[in-house]
Amino acid sequence: QVQLVESGGGLVQPGESLRLSCAASGFTFSNYAMRWYRQAPGKEREFVASISAVSITTNYADSVKGRFTISRDNAKSTVYLFMNSLKPEDTAVYYCYTTWRDFRGAKVENWGQGTQVTVSS
């Protein structure tokens, strides 16, 4: 059974930092790219960052580029999101995500339960 468990969220002041973690289990973590998404109240879920299976390629939303860093530790089956210079507009529930095609070619999507990040003075 695939599980993605996020942790590390909390309440911080503007300009502070947080590190989110997503512990994966139930699949061969090192074979798959991983992503972070977020959803603010009243808004649609949006892409934040992605990392390829062997950490060669990373991508970021323009809104977080230069402030957030995604990384992974395949030995620990964990993906991280380092968030620096946090702003109130970064307030959201942050979700870990991965996807693949099953043996029939059907898309399989896996989401974590999310972790709340609140940036407020």
Description:
With 121 residues, this protein is mostly beta strands. The protein contains no helices and eleven strands. Strands 2, 4, 5, 6, 9, 10 and 11 form a seven-stranded mixed beta sheet that branches. A four-stranded antiparallel beta sheet has the order 1-3-8-7, with no helix packed on it. The radius of gyration is 14 Å and the shape is globular. The model has no long low-confidence stretch (mean pLDDT 96).
β content, as a range? over 45%
Distance between the termini: 40 Å
The Rg value, from CA coordinates, equals 14 Å
Give the averaged pLDDT, no decimals.
96
Global structural class? mainly beta
Task: Tell me the major beta sheet.
Answer: 7 strands, mixed
Low-confidence stretches: none
Overall number of strands: 11
* Helix proportion: under 10%
Give short descriptive properties of this protein.
121 residues, mainly beta, four-stranded antiparallel sheet, 0% helix, single chain, 11 strands
Give a brief rundown of this model.
The chain has 121 residues and is mainly beta. It has no helices and eleven strands.
Q: Which SSEs are present, and which pair or pack?
A:
Layout: E1 3-7, E2 10-12, E3 18-25, E4 34-39, E5 46-51, E6 58-60, E7 68-73, E8 78-83, E9 92-101, E10 107-111, E11 115-119
Parallel strand pairs: 2-11
Antiparallel strand pairs: 1-3, 3-8, 4-5, 4-9, 5-6, 7-8, 9-10, 9-11
